[in-house]
Structure prediction request, 280 residues.
Amino acid sequence: MPLYKLADFDPNYRETFGGDDIIALDLYTEGGVKIGSIADVLVDADGRFRYLVIDTQYNSSNKRILLPIGLSRTDYNQRRVYVDGLSKEQVQSLPMYKDNMTVDYDYEEQVRKAYRPISSDLTYNRDTYNYQQDASLYNLNEQNHQTFKLYEERLIANKNRIKTGEVAVGKHIETETARVSVPIEKERVVIERVNPTDVGTAVNPSELQFQEGEVARIEIYEETPEIHKEAFVREEVRVRKVVDRDTVETQETIRREELDINTQGDLPRNQTDVTPNDRV
Prediction:
C-alpha cells in the first residue's frame, strides 16, 4: 500500500481543509505535556490520513517517528494535536522515520507492533492485510473523532425516449362511375319511290331488257365506341420525420441537511468548513 506525503498528494491541501494546516502544530499528551510537533502527514492512495510524522522531544533527544492517525486528536483552536498514552518506551521502540525512506509493509509492522495492545495475539499476512484490521489505530470514529455526513437532494435532469404514437401511410382504392361521350356515325339506306319525269312516254319494247334478281348493292357502315382505361400519375406523397425542440421546466421540493450544534457551558469550539472531499 503506497503512502504519500500530504503536500505531494495534494499541493493545495490547505485550501481543501479550509485554510487549516495540521503540519507544524505541537503534539501534547492529554495531560498537557508537550512531546513534540507535527512534521508531516502520510496518506494512502485514496487520500486517507494514515500517519502523523512526529518530531519527538523526550529527555532532550530528538527522534522522528510515525503516529497512527487514530491515536490523535486535533484542536485547531489551541493549535495543538493531542495523543493519548504515547509513552517513552513506545518512542524508544519505534523505528526512526526519515524523509527519504520508503514506508513498506515491514516498516509499518514495526510501527504497529509498538502501538498494539500487548495482549493481542492476532496474526497478520502481508498479502491480505488492510488497515481495518487495526481499526483502533487508523479509524477516526471513536468518541473524539466521530464523523457523520450531511446530505442534500439535487434535481438531476435526464431524458427518456418514449413512443407516443405512430403514423402509417398506405393506399386504398376508391371506385366511381366515369362517363365519356363519343360521337358515332351510322349509315342507313333510304329507298324512295318517285314518279318519273318522263311518265307517259312510250318505250320501244325491243329496247328494254327485263331483269330478275339483284340489280344494286350498297354497303352500310356504322361506328361503334371503343373504350379502354389507362393509368396516370395523379399525385406524389413524401413521408419524412422532423424533430421539434422545446425546453420543459419542472420543479420539485428538495431537502438539505444543515448542522445544528448545541453546547452546554463555556466550551471552546472550532468549526472548520471543508469541502465534501473528506480526506480523513
The CA atoms of residues 77 and 270 lie 6 Å apart. Confidence is low (pLDDT under 50) at residues 141-148. Helices lie at 6-9, 13-16, 88-93, 105-115, 135-138.
